[in-house]
């Protein structure tokens, strides 16, 4: 094992996006804007869209507070802990810079933000790009140079250059009692299929090797558009996740699907994975297994049928990796209901698992449910859940020793290369480390590796 290489921890927040990567320098006199992007990958895409617009207008992106003329904080309001983190980030930006513009999910509640930080320059809600731009124009007027400020073909990306999030829709039609995202971001609004594909094609042409498809409910894509068709490559493409995934897979990059709700038509994606068009990876937020808990959450209560569906997916595509997130300590959750979840997890044997302890979220209907679970019980159940998940993961990792897998390189330093397999999404899943024969590797390289060693969540191997 390479000295100093960190092993992926089991309790990574599944709502968090990777940390932004900002590398560009400003020319003398060019106004500079800083960006703090919190929350999920969908918020990171919003940050990229804002910065792409600003970059086109002649702004540079500042990597630190000190050099910025103003700082945009893109907030998260999913959980109360995320709200507290957002307020802390706003306070830090005010302390370090003083000129702060707030946007994102928490920005939908301006009184809440100004109650804590009355001196922020402006507060806007999610997807309110024009209002953010107006606030930046007021704080630091643009100074474009048309001969210099030509926008890169890919826009501005806060992730490493070899992978990129691809947002295909905004909003959600579900009414889960623990969630306020539909109130913040509205009902489902899908992008036209040809617009998504055009963006993806430009990303791949610019060197992106992996596309991470995201939305609040990826498998519902196109439902609001009645799955209309659009011209594409001399033919037509339907605004439907199966058609979109097939076309994305033909672009030549790894295509990874996140936030897939387990509708029956999800089974139509599995042949695309078996064919190699789409990565054999499904990120499906099951949340719980017990039908009574699922009913209290206002989610479909069909965990037995879900196990049958998982078995069918694995029969059709044996190499499929299944990731999910769960909530423990939901109001009214009994010990018997929690043990049902552990038994279900043992049977489902999911490959990658994240877990939240339930939190009240301002405005969520779950707050009013009876029989809230004490904090110490939530913590104890979370530990038991993660212990079970860790044992399952360790067995699956050990089974990979001696096999050959395809990996993508994320980073290279003096100690080795940090990579990911098909089974690993950035930041939230495991890694494969190469600590010998890694000379000449660079981020974005894709190669075959023989697995030599395994830990609970990570692998070690050598190029072949």
Poorly predicted ranges (pLDDT <50, ≥5 residues)? 1-18, 146-153
The gyration radius over C-alpha positions equals 22 Å
As for the CATH topology of the largest domain, it is pyruvate-formate lyase- activating enzyme
Q: CATH superfamily of the largest domain, called what?
A: tm_1862 like domain
Give the rounded overall mean pLDDT.
87
Domain MTTase N-terminal: 31-141
Domain TRAM: 398-464
Binding site for [4Fe-4S] cluster 2: 172, 176, 179
Organism: Amaricoccus solimangrovi
Task: Spell out the key features of this protein.
464 residues; OB fold (Dihydrolipoamide Acetyltransferase, E2P); five-stranded parallel β-sheet; Rossmann fold; disordered N terminus; 3 domains; 20 strands
Nutshell version of this structure?
This protein has 12 helices and 20 strands.
